[in-house]
Design goal:
single chain; alpha+beta; SH3 type barrels; two-stranded antiparallel ribbon
C-alpha cells in the first residue's frame, strides 16, 4: 500500500461546531503519529474526531487506510470512494481502492485500468471540488477586461486581436462553468452506496418473502434508484436491478 498522505490539501471547508481548526490539525497530527506507530484504532478515532470539523480527500483517505488495516474492508472502500469523489484520478486513492476491492467477493464494479481515464479524471476533477468554479470566475474576469480593452482600442488590428482573444476566453468560461457544474453534481450526489452487511439477498419486490434474484456481499458498490417501503431499489455496474433493505447500505 502506498504511503499515508500527510498533507491536508484539497480541503472542503465545513463549519466546525465542536472543534477549532487548531484542535482539528492537532488531532490529525496525533492520528498520523498513531498510524505510523501501528495503532490504527487510535489513529481512526482521532481522524474521525477531526472529521467533525472539516473534511478533505487526504483525511478521508487516511480514514480508509485505518479501516483497511483494521480489516474493515467495506468501510475502507466507502471512505476511499468518498475521497475519490473529491479528488478524481488521485493515484494513491485509486490504487488503494483497487487493493481493497480485491477483497470483495462480488466482482461487478472493477475500476477501469486505462491511463486515459485516470488522466481525464484528474483534468476534470481539478485539485479540489471548487477549483473549476474559481477558474470560471477568473476567466470571466479576464474576458471582461479584454472586451473593455477592445472597446477602448483605437487600432483596428489590435481591436481584432483582442476580440479574438475574447472569443477564446468566452469559450474557456463556458467550458469551466460546465466543469464546475458537473463537479457540483458529482460531489452532492449521494445515490451510490456500499454494502456493509456480510451478505444480502437482493429481491424482486420490496418485501420479505419475494423472489431472491441474486446475492451480494459486503464491500460491493451499488447505485440506489429509489426507496419504497423502507427498501432500496439498487442497480449494479453490470445492469442487474433488485430490492434490498436500506439498513444494509451506507451512502457514499
Amino acid at each position: 500500500m502506498r504511503k499515508l498522505l500527510t498533507s491536508l490539501l484539497l480541503v472542503l471547508a465545513i463549519p466546525a461546531f465542536t472543534l477549532s481548526g487548531v484542535e482539528a490539525d492537532s488531532l490529525v497530527a496525533r492520528g498520523e503519529r498513531a498510524y505510523a506507530a501501528g495503532d490504527h484504532a487510535a489513529a481512526l478515532a482521532r481522524f474521525d474526531s477531526a472529521r467533525t470539523a472539516f473534511t478533505s480527500p487526504a483525511l478521508l483517505y487516511n480514514i480508509g487506510n485505518c479501516h483497511f488495516k483494521l480489516g474493515d474492508i467495506p468501510h475502507a472502500i466507502l471512505f476511499y470512494e468518498r475521497a475519490l469523489k473529491l479528488a478524481p484520478g488521485d493515484p494513491d486513492i485509486r490504487t488503494n481502492l483497487e487493493l481493497a476491492r480485491q477483497n470483495v467477493v462480488d466482482r461487478v464494479n472493477e475500476l477501469p485500468g486505462f491511463t486515459l481515464g485516470s488522466t481525464w479524471s484528474r483534468i476534470r476533477g481539478g485539485r479540489d471540488a471548487d477549483q473549476w468554479a474559481r477558474r470560471s470566475l477568473w476567466i470571466c474576469l479576464a474576458l471582461f477586461a479584454v472586451l473593455a480593452a477592445a472597446v477602448a482600442a483605437r487600432q483596428r488590428i489590435l481591436r481584432r486581436g483582442l476580440l479574438i482573444l475574447g472569443g477564446v476566453l468566452l469559450l474557456g468560461t463556458l467550458l469551466s462553468v460546465g466543469f464546475a457544474a458537473s463537479r457540483h453534481r458529482e460531489v452532492t450526489d449521494d445515490s451510490e452506496a456500499i454494502i456493509t452487511s456480510p451478505k444480502v439477498d437482493v429481491r424482486s419486490e420490496p418485501k420479505d418473502g419475494s423472489t431472491v434474484l441474486f446475492v451480494l456481499h459486503k464491500g460491493t458498490k451499488v447505485t440506489i434508484l429509489q426507496q419504497q417501503l423502507d427498501w432500496s431499489e439498487v442497480q449494479l455496474a453490470n445492469g442487474n436491478v433488485g430490492w434490498m433493505p436500506p439498513a444494509t447500505l451506507e451512502r457514499i
